[in-house]
Amino acid sequence: MDTAADITAMRRAITLAARGLGSTSPNPVVGCVILDAAGAPAGEGFHRRAGGPHAEVHALREAGGRARGGTAYVTLEPCNHTGRTGPCAQALTEAGVSRVVYAVGDPNPQATGGADTLRAAGIETTQGLLADEAEAGNAAWLTSVRLGRPYVLWKYAATLDGRIAAADATSRWITSPEARADVHRLRAEADAVIVGSGTARTDDPQLGVRGIEGARQPLRVVVDTAATAVRPGARVLDGTAPTLIAVAEDAGTAHLPSETVLRLPRAANGPGLDIGALLDALYARGIRSVLLEGGPVLAGAFVAAGSVDKVVGYLAPVLLGAGPAALADAGISTISRALRLEVTETERIGPDLRITAVPVPARKGN
């Protein structure tokens, strides 16, 4: 049975893991806490960047000799392979820990097996403590490994009646400065930010991260099927971060820097590009998490493709009564085919409300 000390230590490891969001890709975020043989805190750490020491190594270094006979709490099964760093299962064994508790099994076939290695060394090893919390904190990486495509978080900002702009197309600013600052946090945690041609043409967004010290700039992606929205001098071409302009295979791109052009097949049904092909191309470039910022047409295409893993909506206490909705046609023609969501969090951000939700499987009979 898990004790209060076990739960406290694992929850601390989950909190530590979150510190790596935005800096570890294509690796997972992982946290580790070590208690000594008497149950006192001895060391802790988290995976800080790809290619650097893993969470267990940081924790073991801090614990030193106090790790011997102690317990290690890790949010993800300790790895069992040698990549840019050595196997953590071996490091824990050599440190002399007597027990390892991990939350989630490693789905990566190249790294799994750490638990078996630990058990073979005579170390008591158990899985599952606070697994749901650890899964949520590492959802982007776990999804990318299991599905072989980047994790997609769709973010939008709207009025309370669901409008993202007024009837005259004005939209600045529907939400508060606090909500807009929170969006920069989402950008800092993502490998790539995606917008469509409508957003590029109307807003000329820069799509960089601002106001977060030490943040890594995400790849900027504009889905511009006909290659007409991004013109020379566009802010997305300012050189502060890498950029890709996704265009149709037959689009004319002489006006674009050649290194920014990503040619993709058109969608089999409807306008635009093949969303699956776009995600495959990004995955091949090492992108494991995507922040989809809009607009409604592109969001509808992602929903229709079944490629939205989380929704974050910022709702402002504002009414417009007319103007474009947050989501355009998503291939849903009747209520029985509606994409049902489970709300996982609601939080006030300044005067606005942030709602976080994830898709749930369709119920039988729908």
Automatic annotation (TrEMBL):
<dbReference type="Pfam" id="PF00383">
    <property type="entry name" value="dCMP_cyt_deam_1"/>
</dbReference>
<feature type="binding site">
    <location>
        <position position="54"/>
    </location>
    <ligand>
        <name>Zn(2+)</name>
    </ligand>
</feature>
<feature type="active site" description="Proton donor">
    <location>
        <position position="56"/>
    </location>
</feature>
<keyword id="KW-0378">Hydrolase</keyword>
<keyword id="KW-0521">NADP</keyword>
<keyword id="KW-0511">Multifunctional enzyme</keyword>
<feature type="binding site">
    <location>
        <position position="173"/>
    </location>
    <ligand>
        <name>NADP(+)</name>
    </ligand>
</feature>
<dbReference type="InterPro" id="IPR002125">
    <property type="entry name" value="CMP_dCMP_dom"/>
</dbReference>
<protein>
    <recommendedName>
        <fullName>Riboflavin biosynthesis protein RibD</fullName>
        <ecNumber>3.5.4.26</ecNumber>
        <ecNumber>1.1.1.193</ecNumber>
    </recommendedName>
</protein>
<dbReference type="GO" id="GO:0009231">
    <property type="term" value="P:riboflavin biosynthetic process"/>
</dbReference>
<keyword id="KW-0560">Oxidoreductase</keyword>
<dbReference type="InterPro" id="IPR011549">
    <property type="entry name" value="RibD_C"/>
</dbReference>
<dbReference type="GO" id="GO:0008835">
    <property type="term" value="F:diaminohydroxyphosphoribosylaminopyrimidine deaminase activity"/>
</dbReference>
<feature type="binding site">
    <location>
        <position position="203"/>
    </location>
    <ligand>
        <name>substrate</name>
    </ligand>
</feature>
<dbReference type="InterPro" id="IPR024072">
    <property type="entry name" value="DHFR-like_dom_sf"/>
</dbReference>
<feature type="domain" description="CMP/dCMP-type deaminase">
    <location>
        <begin position="4"/>
        <end position="115"/>
    </location>
</feature>
<keyword id="KW-0479">Metal-binding</keyword>
<comment type="pathway">
    <text>Cofactor biosynthesis; riboflavin biosynthesis; 5-amino-6-(D-ribitylamino)uracil from GTP: step 3/4.</text>
</comment>
<comment type="similarity">
    <text>In the C-terminal section; belongs to the HTP reductase family.</text>
</comment>
<dbReference type="Pfam" id="PF01872">
    <property type="entry name" value="RibD_C"/>
</dbReference>
<feature type="binding site">
    <location>
        <position position="88"/>
    </location>
    <ligand>
        <name>Zn(2+)</name>
    </ligand>
</feature>
<dbReference type="InterPro" id="IPR050765">
    <property type="entry name" value="Riboflavin_Biosynth_HTPR"/>
</dbReference>
<feature type="binding site">
    <location>
        <position position="79"/>
    </location>
    <ligand>
        <name>Zn(2+)</name>
    </ligand>
</feature>
<feature type="binding site">
    <location>
        <position position="207"/>
    </location>
    <ligand>
        <name>substrate</name>
    </ligand>
</feature>
<feature type="binding site">
    <location>
        <position position="293"/>
    </location>
    <ligand>
        <name>substrate</name>
    </ligand>
</feature>
<comment type="pathway">
    <text>Cofactor biosynthesis; riboflavin biosynthesis; 5-amino-6-(D-ribitylamino)uracil from GTP: step 2/4.</text>
</comment>
<comment type="similarity">
    <text>In the N-terminal section; belongs to the cytidine and deoxycytidylate deaminase family.</text>
</comment>
<feature type="binding site">
    <location>
        <position position="187"/>
    </location>
    <ligand>
        <name>substrate</name>
    </ligand>
</feature>
<dbReference type="GO" id="GO:0008270">
    <property type="term" value="F:zinc ion binding"/>
</dbReference>
<feature type="binding site">
    <location>
        <position position="210"/>
    </location>
    <ligand>
        <name>substrate</name>
    </ligand>
</feature>
<dbReference type="InterPro" id="IPR016192">
    <property type="entry name" value="APOBEC/CMP_deaminase_Zn-bd"/>
</dbReference>
<feature type="binding site">
    <location>
        <position position="225"/>
    </location>
    <ligand>
        <name>NADP(+)</name>
    </ligand>
</feature>
<feature type="binding site">
    <location>
        <position position="171"/>
    </location>
    <ligand>
        <name>substrate</name>
    </ligand>
</feature>
<feature type="binding site">
    <location>
        <position position="199"/>
    </location>
    <ligand>
        <name>NADP(+)</name>
    </ligand>
</feature>
<dbReference type="InterPro" id="IPR004794">
    <property type="entry name" value="Eubact_RibD"/>
</dbReference>
<dbReference type="InterPro" id="IPR002734">
    <property type="entry name" value="RibDG_C"/>
</dbReference>
<dbReference type="GO" id="GO:0008703">
    <property type="term" value="F:5-amino-6-(5-phosphoribosylamino)uracil reductase activity"/>
</dbReference>
<comment type="function">
    <text>Converts 2,5-diamino-6-(ribosylamino)-4(3h)-pyrimidinone 5'-phosphate into 5-amino-6-(ribosylamino)-2,4(1h,3h)-pyrimidinedione 5'-phosphate.</text>
</comment>
<dbReference type="GO" id="GO:0050661">
    <property type="term" value="F:NADP binding"/>
</dbReference>
<keyword id="KW-0862">Zinc</keyword>
<dbReference type="InterPro" id="IPR016193">
    <property type="entry name" value="Cytidine_deaminase-like"/>
</dbReference>
<keyword id="KW-0686">Riboflavin biosynthesis</keyword>
